[in-house]
Design brief:
The complex is a heterodimer of chains A (292) and B (371). With 292 residues, chain A is of the alpha/beta class. Chain A contains 9 helices and 14 strands. In chain A, the strands form 2 sheets. In chain A, strands 3-4-2-1-5-6-7 form a 7-stranded mixed sheet, with helices on both faces. Chain A has a 7-stranded mixed sheet with strand order 9-8-11-10-12-13-14, with helices on both faces. Chain B folds into 3 domains: 71 residues, ATP-grasp fold, A domain (Dna Ligase, domain 1, 2-Layer Sandwich); 123 residues, ATP-grasp fold, B domain (D-amino Acid Aminotransferase, Chain A, domain 1, 2-Layer Sandwich); 144 residues, Rossmann fold. By secondary structure, chain B is an alpha+beta fold. The chains are: A alpha/beta (292), B alpha+beta (371). Chains A and B meet through helix 4 and helix 5 of A and helix 9 of B.
Chain lengths: 292, 371
Amino acid sequence: MILHNTDRVLVQGITGKQGTFWTEQMQAYGTNVVGGVNPKKAGETHCGVPVYATAKEAAGFDVSVMFIPPGAALAAAEDAIEAGAKMVVILTEHIPSHDVMRIHAAAKERGTRIVGPNTAGLVTPGECFVGIMPAFNDRVFKPGSVGVVSRSGSLGTLICLNLVGAGFGESAFIGIGGDPMIGTTTKDALEAFENDPNTEAVVLVGEIGGGMEEEAAQFAATMTKPVVSFIAGAAAPVGKKMGHAGAIVMGNQGSYASKRGALEQAGVTVVDTPSLIPDALKRAMGSGRVIH
Amino acid sequence: MNFEEHAGKRVLAQAGVPIPRGRLATSPDEAAEIAAEIGPVVVKAQVPTGKRGKAGGIKLAATPDEARAAAEAILGMDIGGHRVERLLIEEKADIAREFYAAVLDDTRNRAPLVMFSTEGGMDIEEVAAERPEDLRKAEIDIRKGFDLVAAREMLSGLDVPDAVPQFLKSLYEVWRTRDAELVEINPLAELADGRVVALDCKFVLDDSAAFRQSDIAGWGAAETMTELESRGRDLGLKYIELGGAVGVLANGAGLTMTTMDAITHFGGRPANFLEIGGEAYTKATDALRLVLSNPEVKSLIINFCGAFARTDVMAEGVVRAWMDLRPNLPAFFSIHGTNEDEAIRLVRDRLGFEPYDRMEDAVRAAVEAAR
């Protein structure tokens, strides 16, 4: 799930306003965009690449990124999966949950990695990005050795800003999405960073709701690289959805205390506010870390 | 979107799932009339929350007079913050045995889950924790569905009425065709006459699928909202009142939660949750007006970290609302990300505020100003 400029990227919904704007940004940054999809504009050229009626017609791509509205997301994702995509990055928010389950079932069968739904995308600083992250802002993204995984795009941006401001750079940013049923989890991202030779330490940006941070904590306990974390939602009231459909505390499940406790028990440094991350990272990287 | 019991049962009945005979009443006289038609009844408060029985919201009535008295007692009650305004008057079931059945989104496995237990009428979390062997679960491939063979398989070895597999299959079909997040029957009852019926029903519609369930979407229970919260909803904004003095305007759910956390961390209390992330980033003017409509707000933190959301567009929206309202309170800005230079210039030149470089410094200043 760490993106490289050798990955051939297909943009589904390339001709729309957002599709066009972000395709231009991706291309300018170095993303290898090989084509786009819009059944009504098949045969045309848009952003300098061919437009196809379907992903199946496009073939010859590795990663698809979807700028597609909720009601059409299932069909688009199925198309990309059947076309043989290795990875489908779904930016769309508010896809009906039954459609999301169907997407995951199809992806499981074909071995396709799904990132999202409701993700801001993936960035490999200095190389390429897919999605809607400000990769081109050099106060936010700079090549370096810190892997960042975040459910939220806006908070992920803030964390990266803090890192770069303190002299760090990122090996990659993995936005996993704010929905309750996402294809790539916090733990999956930790695994990718643990195996990535360019990553020396990881920042885990979590959120209240669900059990992903707890699951990731179990893996973090076995990692050789230091992990520092910030979890959003300490001040959120119980039982209310905090914007992200996934961010809701029911009883004690999904609570801040449960996540922070699990991570700290796994040896992860959890900080109270985002600007404390760089110092915690310096300490964690300086001192080395007990290898379990 | 939660449905009250009567609305959930209406969805069940449409799909041919057996429910007891009954009707809604909004007055004691109506309750008595319905009881006169049906015979002995159960009078049930209709509120979108559990534990109605414990709160005294469910009463048996053998005669129309008893039904009237029960209705008088229950109407107007407060149950879990909901005022009782409707009652379901239902035939009193002659129960032989009680079970539990549910179909839900299993977010962990990203797949539907069918659950069944011979322990009906209990808190299912308790059953799961104390006697997990009494709870049967079947994970479903949503593309294949759930048939009688699968239903019989998950029930194998249990002593249940012959009608239960078909009931589970129908329940799954309701969940699937109605875009439910949850449909839970507790208890599912075997009656003395052999019928198997849903005595209670908890139905939750997936909000994101309401557009294709328009015939039932209006049956959902209205959320209890403050006046400002419902104004937010009408504007297409997710606004939650939190009772503090520091007004919050940020983009993105994660960043907004983090802003609230930082306010709390520095000893303040947020007045609201309000995010204008995603497509809503063009609504900054409406959003700021909403935040400023709360008379409790003593200071304002505006925290933008734009990716998709362009900070210059959001800042322009803020400037517009501020120029219109000219509020007499201090505002503190932190602006980073897409088009930040233009956004910072706007705020500096038009409003005379100097954005902070660190979010925490802006939040701390806002907390101090609200004291």
